Amino acid sequence: MAAVKVGDGGAGDGGDEPQLVEELRVQEPSSPPVVAYRAARRFFTDPRTVGVAQAGPRTAAFMARTWARSREPVADPHAVPARPSLGLAVQVLLDELLISTMKNPRLLPRRADYERAGVEVAQAFELYRERGWLEDPESYHRTPGAPAVWSTRGERALGQPYEHLSFESDYEPHRGEPGRERWLEMDANRTAHAWVLRQADPGRPWVVCVHGFGTGAPFLDLRAFRARRLHSELGLNVAVPVLPLHGPRQQAGVASGEGFMSIDLVDTVHALAQSAWDVRSLIAWARLIGRDAPVGIWGLSLGGYVASLVAAMEDGLACAIAGIPATDILDLYHRHSPPAVRKRALEHGALGPQATAVQNVVSPLVLRPKLSRDRRFVFAGLGDRMSTSGQAHRLWEHWERPSVAWYPGGHVGFWWVGSVNRFVTEALVSCGLSAGPSGASPAPSLSSSET
Q1: Which of 21, 235, 394, 410 is 20 to 30 A off residue 404, Cα-Cα?
Q2: pTM (2 d.p.)
Q3: Are 262 and 155 in contact (CB under 8 A)?
Q4: Structural domain boundaries of the chain?
């Protein structure tokens, strides 16, 4: 039943009250065919369904381009062209399918989201320019100390015992920054967590392993880094920090990682800045309890981004290993967002030149690494469809072409590639963090042509 206003009293009608006409709407229950049609329409127009349907053609197109490029002369002696193979095609298809599952229509921005995001980008741009952060992005970041208070409790995941470390994250966005209050309202995110495997001797070297987007669970993170091997065979202390808005740091009922990368670019800036802050606090903690033991950092995917960012801020790291790294969040938005979302984001200023300038304060492609070139390492898949080999190549160039391993696979395929496992082991050995499996002699320094 709806009330519809059809007229009001004019100047000469004696001031009568408006007339209201009741319009009765009698709706018949939807018939089974109509219900079935609506359900089918929702299913077939769901971005996830569309993405799955397009995964095969996209894979075929990628393989066709790969075949064409493999037949072209290679001008750059450092370039490693992908070779078409069934294994590569399978891994590319797996990436495409995983990308499709992430396109939840519930997370697509609404008009108010675009408007808010555009306003906040403009506000951040002006603030960052006034405070000199656009010209000197490193000055945007502050140096944290080791946590004054922390707690640990013993836990187990897939038969692997570990310590669950937690402490208060002291990170706060700068006063006056857009989105500051919204960010601080997320209570669960104010507590930092890490999964820790300690040696009996706390003075043994440490490796801090930073997980990728959407994980933050011990049974996934410890397995992804082969933490058992790092700890038992290579003799390392291992610490796996949980990134902001992931795992136990996410609000109840919200998927791990949701909100870390969204149309709200300032939230992504806060997320990355807090990631670097919390990882550096964890490094300070490891040095505190390890009596200044050497510490290296290794990140995967989004964790590769964070590891690269920390390498540009933290002095004295033994090594930095960026694995299948994302390095440009805005490029990922352009690559993976639906065309309509990109168009509206550009129209409202949520993407564009100002957004790029704001994002530069947390960009590992802008900030310079503090550790020497021989302590930087990159590995990436030539068929990576998620963070892409192009982003890894840009970091490799920015890092002055250090030791690199390109493997013929996709984003998640690194785990099954033996050459990647050997590359990481040799990196840890060459930097003095480990003597190698079972006390093997240190490996020689890796060359930039390592594949």
Answers
A1: 235
A2: 0.85
A3: no
A4: 46-106, 109-439
